[in-house]
Amino acid sequence: MVQVNVGTLTGDLTLPHVGNATNPDAMLQILRDHLRPAGDGAYEVRGCRLSRIRYRAGFRCVLQYTLRIAELDSGKERDLPVSGAMYAASGKAERTYRKLLSTDPRREIPDAWLVFDPVSFVSDLDMLVQIFPYDRRLPALPKLAAGPSPALEKLLLGRFGEGDWLAKAWEVEPVRYRKGLSAVLAYTGRARNRGTGETTVRRFYVKTQREASGEDRALPAVREAAAGFLNIARPVAYLRDLKALVLDEVPGVSLEEFLLEGHNPTKTMRKIARDLAAFNQLDVIPERRHTLSDQISSLERSGRLLAWACPHLSPEVESIIAAVADGLEEVRPRPTHRDLKTDHVFLPGDRTALIDLDSLAAADPVLDPALLMARLAAMPDLLPIPRNQARIAARAFAEEYFARVPEAWRERLHLHYAGALLEVAHGFFRRQEPGWSAKITGLVREAENSLRKGVR
Predict the structure, then answer these.
(1) How many CA atoms, within 13 angstroms, populate the side-chain half-sphere of residue 212?
(2) Adjacency order of strands within the sheet including 253-254
């Protein structure tokens, strides 16, 4: 069971039921009582896990749950994302529910996903509940969850290779979902070459967002400039009417998988560092800007959430943010990934590949190494990776990266690293990682050490 500091979460008097909503055991029974069956199948809710929280003080709290459901006829189990929204404005959840109900949301849901009524209202919690793939802020999601349209299927089959390919089956699986903001679906296709009889499987990823983004218009130029040392996946298509970007699966293993396999990370981390340093020094500048003001605003948002979740750490968090804001100055912007994770770096052979460049911007490039190092520092709290191995990986990366960039970049690392640790810490709470409070405390202490002693 996820441990939640309910005393903290009930501190907002405008959202009096948040404490109950963050209790997975209580929500399991509440959702069992309130979710109404839809479609032809019969299902049982067997488990409930709180998987994500998005909170804005005095306004709303959005909670995501992962339900474990079983089809009673076959006994097959699967996960089903469910979201609950609670508002400070009295009656807003119920008014929104009535409005959505009048649009007949059932008709939008593919049969394979129609398990429960897509929208419901839990009066005891004053909560609006939505069942994936229904999402009033992502209206294209149900269509995408149905699998590729005939036109898109034809385009995807063209990626299978030479010859005439016939699709045998498509499996659709949610990979990442943030209610009201974005979703990533995996399309796994099995197809047969009508000429040779060969059968092959390929996977594609479809990303849809509330705000249409496609690609930054400078990304093709960035991709071309980096082609000699870095693989940046090209999109298969952008479905403008669905606000969806379709991408090929990147070959190779992610850096996260590589580290989990227990390899000596030194050589690989140095190669990644060389490639990232070259990427961050490209002369092609993205159109999107991420200024110092944007960065401090993002840190302050993370700080507010951390203060809500861990009030005992509030003075330390405020002090870290103040030190970062006071110590940094606006610098010449460079191409910056801005969301560099160990599962966004791939190792296809002797090349480095980057995925998920949705946040690509002209920004302070030290954001990239700082965030990757912060995530390496947090890995032992999330995965079975020895802390010493994570330190070796981070040290090798930092030595190589900062040997290849201007010296002034290294001078900013301790500030960006401290800020990146707060960003990672706030993610622990949002995703409700087991034992998140103790893990957040450890990352805050690491950020304080970074400001006092530098990055070691």
Answers:
(1) 9
(2) 230-232, 352-354, 345-347, 253-254
Quickly list DSSP for 39-104.
Answer: SS--EEEEEEEEEEEEEETTTEEEEEEEEEEEETTT--EEEEEEEEEEESSTTHHHHHHHHHHTT-
Angle subtended at Cα 79 by Cα 74 and Cα 81, rounded to the nearest 5 degrees: 135
pLDDT at 71: 92
User: What b/e readout covers 395-425, taking b as 16+ CB neighbours within 10 angstroms?
Assistant: bbbbebbbeebeeebbebbbbbbbbbbbbbb
Residue whose entry in the numeric block shows the structure tokens 């993370």: 302
Beta bridge partners of 191: 167, 200
Task: Write the CB contacts of 221 (distance below 8 Å, at least 6 apart in sequence).
Answer: 284
SS3 label, residue 294? helix
Rounded to two decimals, the pTM is 0.89
Q: Which of 353, 368, 372 is nearest to 253 (CA)?
A: 353
**CB of 64 closer than 8 Å to CB of 90:** no
| Half-sphere exposure of residue 146: CA atoms within 13 angstroms, side-chain side | 14
- Three-state DSSP at 332 gives coil
Compute the distance between CA of residue 227 and CA of residue 368 in angstroms, rounded to an integer: 19
- Predicted pLDDT of residue 234: 81
pLDDT at 259: 96
d(CA 373, CA 418): 10
The candidate with the shortest Cα–Cα distance to 197, out of 171, 168, 169, 170, is 168
Structural contact between residues 298 and 324, judged by C-beta atoms closer than 8 angstroms: no
What are the structure tokens assigned to 173, written together? 């699986």
Q: Give the model's pLDDT for residue 282.
A: 97
Predicted pLDDT of residue 7: 38
Cβ atoms of residues 187 and 203 within 8 Å: yes
Helix (H, G, I), strand (E, B) or coil at 182: strand
Q: What are phi and psi of 202, to 5 degrees?
A: -135, 155
* Residue 108 to residue 115: CA distance in whole angstroms: 13
Q: Could you tell me the maximum CA-CA distance found in the chain, to the nearest angstrom?
A: 68
- Ranges of residues in the chain with a pLDDT under 70 are 1-13, 212-215, 456
Question: Which contacts of 1-4 are long-range, i.e. CB under 8 A and separated by 24 or more positions?
Answer: 1/25, 2/49, 2/50, 2/432, 2/434, 3/434, 3/435, 3/437, 4/50, 4/432
Instruction: Determine the pLDDT at residue 12.
Output: 61
Distances (CA, A) of 18 to 6, 114, 124, 180, 282: 8, 28, 11, 19, 47
Q: What is the pLDDT of residues 50-60, one digit of tens each?
A: 999 988 877 89
Asked whether the beta carbons of 198 and 166 are under 8 A apart, the reply is: no
Beta strands 119-122; 60-71: pairing state: unpaired
